[in-house]
Amino acid sequence: MSRTYHIRTFGCQMNVHDSERAAGILETMGYRRSDEVADADLVLLNTCAVRENADNKLYGTLGHLKPLKDEHGTTIVVGGCLAQKDGGAITERAPWVDVVYGTHNLASLPRLLAEADSTELPVLELVETLETFPSALPAKREVRHHAWVSISVGCNNSCTFCIVPSLRGPENSRRAGDIIAEVEALVADGVVEVTLLGQNVNSYGRDLDSRPLFADLLRSMGTVDGLERVRFTSPHPRDFTEDVLHAMAETPNVCEHLHLPLQSGSDRVLRAMRRSYRSRRFLDLVDRTRDLLPDAALTTDLIVGFPGETDEDFEQTMEVVAQARFDQAFTFQYSPRPGTPAADMVDDFVAPDVVAARYQRLEALTRRQSHDAHAALVGTSRQLLVESPSKTDDTRLSGRTRGNHLVHFPRGTGEVAPGDLVTVDVVEAAANYAIAGAPTAVTTTRAGDATRAALARGDGWQLGADAVLTPPVGMSTPHGTTASGGRPVLPVLPILPA
Description:
The structure is a single chain. This protein folds into three domains: 4-125, Methylthiotransferase, N-terminal domain (Rossmann fold, 3-Layer(aba) Sandwich), CATH 3.40.50; 134-371, Alpha-Beta Horseshoe (pyruvate-formate lyase- activating enzyme), CATH 3.80.30; 381-452, CATH 2.40.50. 46% of the residues are buried. The chain is an alpha/beta fold. It is 32% helix and 19% strand. It has a six-stranded parallel sheet with strand order 2-1-3-4-5-6, with helices on both faces. Residues 479-498 have low confidence and may be disordered.
């Protein structure tokens, strides 16, 4: 009987990508996914050190897992950013953890599990440089129609509030040929939409000898037959060049959506954050985007209450946000991350009640803007990529426009499935989504056909346990060299005893 696993992912899209790779490794080892943590033989927590209360979430979850360890001998694994940061402190606080690995050595998971099977001690391994691109590992995707594709790992910026560079290392770009080969293999497997991932996609390729830049990579996505939609995240305003906007405008399958993190509208605060751009530069970029991509949707990240933020600084943020007119904003109250320069600015910390009041004002503004953006869709016809059943209404399906707006529409009699493309007329708007009528046109896809077949068999709409994608031949190592014979550099994946 196969062992089972359950993965819980904290944090960003890059962590989701890494969790798919961890799942692929475990599936290759003979494990099968369990939807219930209580039924799993192995529980893997892929951690985040960036989001608020990351430490509390991890150690709280580990506390809940201890009874499973005591009663069933569940193997507990902790990986990712917080593992890289805390290292041995995790097993000191939670000695029932079996394996701890960091952001650079996911490929070592099979060996670490084998070591954990043969020792009573927790197995801890943290390395300082990337051993194998996560994208060069097998993957188990959650859905048929979409895939995350990493184009680079690490970051060369030094934002004072961010711990990512110290946890994921300097930026390291993948060869363009490897990325295209992976995307082609994904499309052959039925994928119709990919999201290109990097901590700073704009600086992609600057560390490669051939120096293909991000705009070149976007254009190359337009040559992949069958790839309907391309998204990317996250760009950095400092490195954003106009050639990317031209590539977006001229490449039909690149979606008209730009996530552009502002963080603050105060130039003084941006300097303290080491963001290397100013509000005028940001607004000029917004204006140029709307000149070249009139239908583009703009989303952003904002931090309220950064150390030293004054009332005047906050009002400047409100003004820039008002001028930018974002379709959606992800707004956060500043919380210190140990190990970052901003965490040492204790004397400049803003009082919590002041931060909360500012946050409420900014949140109210961005929600109004989001409602306005969705209201602008009312009365128009939009193409949606169907993503899933609605999470709140089982009579509806949910899909996204090319601008990444969430739209719900009637489920119908089952002729439409996640992965299909539908055209709908938008009839109603809310702050975070829109509502449409029944589809006026349907384009079925291989992903949709596979989902319909799964539903007809009585399976779920998500991928089953046997869905593992092995990466294509020719995957390069982090240093840009390809293994002899053009074969990908992959770890040995032993089958652990049942």
